[in-house]
Amino acid sequence: MRPFPFLLSALICLSACGAASDRYTVTSPQVTQTQTIAFRAVEVRDVSLPAYAADDEITVQTTDGRILSDGGVLWADTPDRAVALELSRYLTQITRARVASAPWPFEALPDARLDVRFETLVAGDDGQYRASGQYFVAVPDGRRERAGLFDLSVPFDPLIGPPAIASARGQIILDLAVFIARNGLR
Predict the structure, then answer these.
(1) Count of domains in the chain?
(2) For residue 49, with 0-12 CB atoms within 10 Å meaning exposed, 13-18 middle and 19 or more buried, which class applies?
(3) CA–CA distance from 45 to each of 34, 108, 113, 146 (Å)?
């Protein structure tokens, strides 16, 4: 018997025996706010997440500060990529500017570059999804560069579980986009 077909058959059988992971997409809330900003084009250059938030597993923080996860409950997309794309989409809808995540896809360079560094991005078992950290707006043409802190939270029903957490994450990233548009890009 040839080893490769046997090994392939064994791997297929073993993978069929493992429990399937549940993957959750982030629900995109309706964007209703608009904000005029000082830039026509903005690059979301970097989104930095804490290790637990950058992991594919959906996590919950307990009241005593522990971060827990169930290996079978995952985000449908890698969180750093997804958050950068969500921020880009929401900033485009809010500002009507040309916004894209890195790498910048256009020939003409952006007027500003946005970096967002999360200190926390986590669902709490108390029903609050929290996001805190800093944002930085770099402007290559010599205009005023900006930086600021954010500390946001949105409620969710912890009894609903991962679908409620995914919905809350969508809302908190929208709230962050509104906050940055008003405070960092004007």
Answers:
(1) 1
(2) buried
(3) 22, 15, 6, 15
Count of CB atoms situated within 10 Å of the CB of 142: 6
Kindly report, residue by residue over 36-70, the tens digit of the pLDDT.
999 999 999 999 999 999 999 999 999 999 999 98
Residue 122 has pLDDT above 60, yes or no: yes
What is the spatial distance between Cα 66 and Cα 64, in angstroms, rounded to a whole number? 6
| Residue 14 parent element (H or E) | helix 3-17
Q: For the chain, where are the alpha helices, taking DSSP H only?
A: 3-17, 51-54, 79-95, 162-183
Residue count (the chain)? 186
Q: Rounded mean pLDDT of the chain? A: 90
Look at 7-11, 137-141, 154-158 and tell me which has the smallest mean pLDDT. Answer: 7-11
Whether 114 contacts 137, CB under 8 Å: yes
What is the CATH number for 119?
3.40.50.10610
| Beta carbons of 150 and 88 less than 8 angstroms apart | no
Give bridge partners of residue 146 from the DSSP assignment.
Answer: 137
Say if 10 falls within a structural domain: no
